[in-house]
Amino acid sequence: MIKVTRLNGKCFHINALYIDTVESLPDTTITFTNNKKIVVLEKEEEMVEAIIQFYRTVNILGFRNDVEEGT
């Protein structure tokens, strides 16, 4: 799960497995696989890092905690 913040400041968690796209429009908009969209305060780059960290945590797609990105 990834912690995100709505524009009103309320925090909640989303399941990264259901994220389809993350865009800056200019606010960061997350589109899920069911086409539902939410707008969050976090920057697009922060969301990408959080998604990568989530994948590493659950060992999806071969991402490992003990290997640096790009090596």
UniProtKB/TrEMBL annotation:
<protein>
    <recommendedName>
        <fullName>Flagellar protein FlbD</fullName>
    </recommendedName>
</protein>
<dbReference type="InterPro" id="IPR009384">
    <property type="entry name" value="SwrD-like"/>
</dbReference>
<dbReference type="Pfam" id="PF06289">
    <property type="entry name" value="FlbD"/>
</dbReference>
